Amino acid sequence: MENYALGNLSLQRPLVFFDLETTGxxxxxxxxxxxxxxxxxxxxxxxxxxxxxxxxxxxxxxxSKIHGIFDKDVEDMPTLEEFAPKIIQFxxxxxxxxxxxxxxxxxxxxxxxxxxxxxxxxxxxxxxDVQAIFHKKEPRDLKAALRYYCGAELENAHSAxxxxxxxxxxxxxxxxxxxxxxxxxx
Length: 186
Known about the structure:
By secondary structure, this protein is α/β, with parallel strands linked by helices. It contains 7 helices and 5 strands; from the N terminus they run βββαααβαβααα.
């Protein structure tokens, strides 16, 4: 079992960092193809739960290209119905964390558990979304983009003309900075 140095992180109960890979982005339509959870305990020890799942529907080729999981990779894997009790046990008495998980992974998982009639009780779980912290501490807005790409400050932010000019400058600098961008609208 791995052990993490917690630094400034003080835990009263376990914190489960989790992520899903799915057949797509549509909650209620798409299905989970992989679940991964890393449970960080207050003493710094770590427990992991990782499982690919048979989604019961085909994985679209364009989605497989993103996460690298193909139909053949999950054909002999358990279904969510079979694996759900392990997820429920893993989440028991823990808080939750993830990257963009408050907006995607958690709602997706909750919907899937409801679909298969499994009770994932998150009544007392608190949620830490690391992406939300990142965006709050390292803003990803037009003002920050102009500063990052052009080394300039945005004057008259939220005036349409100033915002449009700044956006134009940013695109030109992005094309200069990233050679893999084609430099045309295509």
